[in-house]
Amino acid sequence: MLDRFTMPLTHRPLQRLATPLHQQHITPDQVTFTAFLIGITALPLLAYEQYGWALLAIVLNRLGDGIDGALARLSGHSSDAGGFLDIGLDFVFYAAVVLGFALANPAQNALVAALLLFAFIGTGTSFLAFAIAAKQQAIERPHFPNKAFYYLEGLTEGTETVAALVMFCLFPAYFPTLATLFAIACLITTATRLWGGYWTLRRHNGH
């Protein structure tokens, strides 16, 4: 929901951060994978309730996720392969963070973590399934022209997800409540994406 507003604000700072990497001939895929390796450390950190360090790993991962796209545009190396790697590792990272909270306090967090993972499957599959169909039908993405995949909007997008992960780390005792609320928002996103994607494809096909 907020990505259309936050992405233009981050475009120029990310380009500045990407410029020295471009000058050192570092590739977008290298940044993507490095950011993932940093982000995945949040899993053991959360399991041992090191929430401050986990938050740092999450923030650095999300920063790298923005820099790799800026670097791809700067170097002209945008590709479907890079986009695939980026989105695939993103979903693994998101799931790892939720698993980390489940391991930190299984009695309190495990059930709601399972609910949130269920909701993540809905948002992820609805996003990717539509992206495949949109690619085949050559449907444009006017609000997010720099995305590797067609970006079907929803209540919970990248900005909201990052905000939720940060809140989880800042207020771990409230994870069950916060995660439940975010899971509900993700399920709403899944429903609206399925509905919107279905009718978008029907209209595009002339039905």
TrEMBL record:
Where exactly are the transmembrane stretches of this chain? 35-60, 81-104, 110-134, 181-201
Concerning InterPro entries, the annotation shows:
CDP-OH_P_trans, CDP-OH_PTrfase_TM_dom, CDP_ALCOHOL_P_TRANSF_CS
Its domain of life reads Bacteria
Which PROSITE patterns does the record match to this protein?
Answer: CDP_ALCOHOL_P_TRANSF (PS00379)
Sorted alphabetically, the keyword list is:
Membrane, Transferase, Transmembrane, Transmembrane helix
Q: Name one GO biological process term.
A: phospholipid biosynthetic process
Report the family membership. Answer: Belongs to the CDP-alcohol phosphatidyltransferase class-I family.
Q: What is this protein called?
A: CDP-alcohol phosphatidyltransferase family protein
Record flagged with keyword Hydrolase:
no
Instruction: Record the organism.
Output: Vreelandella sulfidaeris
Q: Which GO terms describe its molecular function?
A: phosphotransferase activity, for other substituted phosphate groups
Its GO CC terms are:
membrane
